[in-house]
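## Example record

The block below lists the input lines for one assembly entry, exactly as stored, with component labels intact.
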Amino acid sequence: MAESGDRFVHDITVRWSDCDPANIAYTGRIPNFALEAIDAWWAAKIGIDWFELNLDRNTGTPFVKLSMEFLSPITPRHTLRCTVRLTKLGRTAMTFAVDGHQDGKASFAGEFVCVAVQADRFKATPLPEDMRLTMESLVDAEG
Amino acid sequence: MAESGDRFVHDITVRWSDCDPANIAYTGRIPNFALEAIDAWWAAKIGIDWFELNLDRNTGTPFVKLSMEFLSPITPRHTLRCTVRLTKLGRTAMTFAVDGHQDGKASFAGEFVCVAVQADRFKATPLPEDMRLTMESLVDAEG
Amino acid sequence: MAESGDRFVHDITVRWSDCDPANIAYTGRIPNFALEAIDAWWAAKIGIDWFELNLDRNTGTPFVKLSMEFLSPITPRHTLRCTVRLTKLGRTAMTFAVDGHQDGKASFAGEFVCVAVQADRFKATPLPEDMRLTMESLVDAEG
Amino acid sequence: MAESGDRFVHDITVRWSDCDPANIAYTGRIPNFALEAIDAWWAAKIGIDWFELNLDRNTGTPFVKLSMEFLSPITPRHTLRCTVRLTKLGRTAMTFAVDGHQDGKASFAGEFVCVAVQADRFKATPLPEDMRLTMESLVDAEG
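Predicted structure tokens for the full assembly:
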């Protein structure tokens, strides 16, 4: 059962190196912020990050889709707070909503869909049972 | 008037540095490939790249939205051919469709929406007239 | 006077996204880790990060030289502890030593030389007096 | 025998995405430009890029050392011409000199040392014989 309201927050220090000559984080960096937040969600909520998941459990989660809205420019002046929620859990597919805020203002809203695969064959496969059980308790469909 | 079928192809050499331990281009790199293709479209079709557009013409084109579908894994084994089309042109907004192929197979399909701004104020503004005229001749609404 | 032994430690979570198909952090990422540690040193020790230094104080610190030795592979399995020391302070030039460790083992050792410039002219200039005084108290020539 | 003067040139289009708010390529991008040039050298001169070398020949070339001097700021206004030379060839180690120029002006000069390893064991090993022979003909010690 979904434990309503489960939200994981991952803070990112945006840096000079992330910014382009417009003095804001380059567009191409922003999906990377959101992906970093999802990787951090795995480490915190499932207890295993993408690296260990792939190498130690032979399980990958390649993305099949992503969409993002950029709501206000991102700069190094404030921490970028990224909220991650697992919003859908299928047999092999997972959907994450990732929202970014700086200084109380929405920076971006994104949705990311990935699929569990057997890493050494790149073949869709149900998630390992232990992870799936944990995930079921975390789905936050209400958003 | 839209000159039907205007398509710009930008080739990218995918490299070792783009790949993660799954031996494929990291998800976070792929929006960057598409953005590079759009920057190359500006240079080829409008005659000015993002850097010059911002610094020399005081015009930025920050993105407000992007969505991508990842259709097959991207590797360094083949050139990544990125097709860029301008599919919508509003008063300040532009929509680009970017599709990537490797070895004849679809790698990704994406849509990117940006808005022209006065660069030093980050304020939406119509595109400079000369660019707008060129763009009108390039819109490929049929896709 | 140099306060002997001043060392700043900046921790980096190495991620899947940093790694290449050899399952270790890509070489090109490693100078970026060290630079991030230096930017963090500025924020912690001087009270201003590179972004604010450039935009609010019109002072840049472009690098003129760097050298790194890679001592053992870097992976996401352990925190990357980066130690930053200011080892030389000239009229306009600064030298930083940055060392990285994972799990008690040396990962890299690097030296980075930068020069203060007036940001809007890219012209070498002495550091602002307040920063210079703070820096003088931090130089750790013994290494 | 060294064929004196063998120089490989790899051109890079520097982009908006490579630049920071100082309107020049970010320092952390520059080692990546040089590494890209070395990867391109492998593809052109040895006939195999790093990706294939690792995956198809079980041979990696991790870097053990790099040093770079930054001689003038790099911008998108001119092509970055990177010259790659193999300057030393040991039993397992190789040294590359990579120099970057824009518009006839030196941008950077760098030296990169790597070691051949058996990729699946990360253990130093002599290069495969075919590659070694090709490399011997390419060493340009005079620089």
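The first strand of chain A starts at residue 8 and ends at 12. Chain A has one domain: 8-136.
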